Give the backbone structure.
Amino acid sequence: MLRLCFFILAVCVTTILPAGAAGPIRVDGITEPFMDVQLGFADAGIIRQQFFKEGDTVNQGDVILELDKSLETLEVQRRKAVMEQAKLIFETTSNLAETTKSVSKEDLAKATSEYEVATAEYGIAVQQLADRRLVAPFAGSIVEILLKPGAAVAPYQPLVREVDTARGYFVGNIDAKAAAQLQLGEPVQIQVDGAPAVAAKICFISPVVDPASGLARIKALFDNSDGKIHPGIEASMVVP
């Protein structure tokens, strides 16, 4: 009886896992947006205007929030006036140096230096004014706005979360031996419950394997311009 049971078990194992069998590789993981960033100002200030709300789509360069900019606007006007005056002095001094030779090299160098410094200071003031606006770094959607007009903000405080879901990543962990069989750019399928499979391509295979699990991180990039897949949900990657 013991010999019979052992024989049956051996046959079952051989039937389920025949030698040399090969099939599709399936990896479980999650989906992520192509871009996901937290935006904030480089300077402190008071939020004065909000141009978009949560859920809105924005184009690259669109102004989302704006800080109070009264002092910065006045500083730009002042620096511009100083620069224009320095420019006039420089041009007058330069013309006299060329036509009459009555201007010393020291006076010409001084006029040139003062004009260059005034131009640089005007450029700094213009940039400081521009920094009072929080602009979208890429085309995407606004997921969250943490503070509203009237609120005080600190430098680099996260205020807006913007994502780009027109493309997405599948992120998972794969057995090291299976990872060795794959290549960058290899076509795969991303499967999500309740949605048709989406074509993707492998864009990252970690060169480092986790010693505890023997798994390597893998990513695949897919087009999601139709919005069929919501980033953040569980999915599977299938390699034919």
